[in-house]
Amino acid sequence: MLTLAPLDPLRIDAAAALFAAEYARLRAAVPGLPARFADPAAAAGLLAGMAGRALVALDRDRVAGYIAWWQSTNFRRTGRRAAYVPEWGHATRPEGRADIYRALYRAASAQWAAAGNQVHAISLLAHDDVAREAWFWNGFGLLVVDAVRACLPLSPAAPTSLTIRRATDADAPALAALDAEHVAHYAAPPIFMAPAAADTPDDLRAYLAGPRNTIWLAHAGDEPAGFMRFRGTDFDAVAILESDAAAFCDGLYVRPDNRGRGAARAMLAAALDHYAALGLTALYTNFESFNPEAAAFWTRHFRPVCFSLMRTPEAP
Ligand SMILES: CC(C)(COP(=O)(O)OP(=O)(O)OC[C@H]1O[C@@H](n2cnc3c(N)ncnc32)[C@H](O)[C@@H]1OP(=O)(O)O)[C@@H](O)C(=O)NCCC(=O)NCCS
């Protein structure tokens, strides 16, 4: 019989140990992931800051599972309030996992509804089929995939008839024109994301000035055909991926007329060579699972490490 209670500071270490054990299983499945969260102290440190937004499921006073969440007031630029459970914000013991997640969701969602949340969201470790099934049964569907790749050359090599080079400040106006097309892609069917503003030439020059940031350009003759860009720090990725030894791709676009000619693959190859020469060990990215082009491209080259799911309840 499970009882639900606020996550008491005295139980944080036991909860964090459950997450560290699950993360160790992900690291065994996907070698090369950062070590930080294999130590329970990492999740424990974050959970210490979640007072009032964390619950524990107890089985005869032992921690069977826990859930902790952030509160967002503008979830994915939709203007909606959401409760978001990060990947380190939940875990269960190995036995009876679906029952534990059901009990945690019942209790947490009551608090989320009382706080006026219109969206519920959660990130899961990608190896964890049991959690995925449990949250699918809880009404959740896939939204974002975080994925990784070791900084090793592409094999086979990446031939393309386009020219690939590293962008400089002088390319900012051309990159801004490409980015206007890029952001429009996400608002179109079947993606239907909330519209975003394109980067301006000033934004792009600021991006290029960031430490270890790069933008790669593909040209068809004199015409800019596409770009791929990487941040060297401050990734917009799940917490388990934070690392000084990686770079994060946060933009990729090839004009429709030039697709299927290996431009994206060749830009990825150039970035891999560049970051490997700097001593980095991995590249990361994330993408919406319902973006057909992204799902087709990234899953060829990268491995999922987190699946982020959401549910929009029908009644408040
Ligand atoms: C995703 C995107 C950048 C791919 O660009 P691309 O230059 O067409 O990709 P590539 O030509 O390098 O193709 C990569 C692979 O997909 C295949 N492919 C891509 N487009 C294809 C097409 N239209 N027909 C058949 N195969 C295609 C290629 O054969 C290649 O396979 P391989 O690696 O096994 O040889 C492009 O589709 C795009 O800009 N989409 C819109 C923006 C977007 O979704 N960006 C992703 C951001 S997360």
How would you portray this structure in words?
The structure is a single chain. The chain is of the alpha+beta class and 316 residues long. It has 2 domains: 2-139, Aminopeptidase; 150-286, 3-Layer(aba) Sandwich (Aminopeptidase). It has 8 helices and 14 strands. The chain has helices at 12-29, 40-47, 97-114, 129-137, 172-187, 201-209, 263-277, 292-301, and strands at 2-6, 54-59, 62-68, 70-72, 82-85, 90-92, 119-125, 141-150, 163-166, 214-220, 223-231, 246-254, 282-288, 303-311. Helix 1 packs across helix 2 (40-47), helix 3 crosses helix 4 and helix 5 crosses helix 6 (201-209). The longest helix is centred in the N-terminal third of the chain and has 18 residues, at 12-29. The structure holds coenzyme A. Residues 185, 252-254, 259-265, 287, 291, 293-294, 296-297, 300 line the site of coenzyme A (COA).
Précis, in short:
The chain is an alpha+beta fold. The protein is built from eight helices and 14 strands.
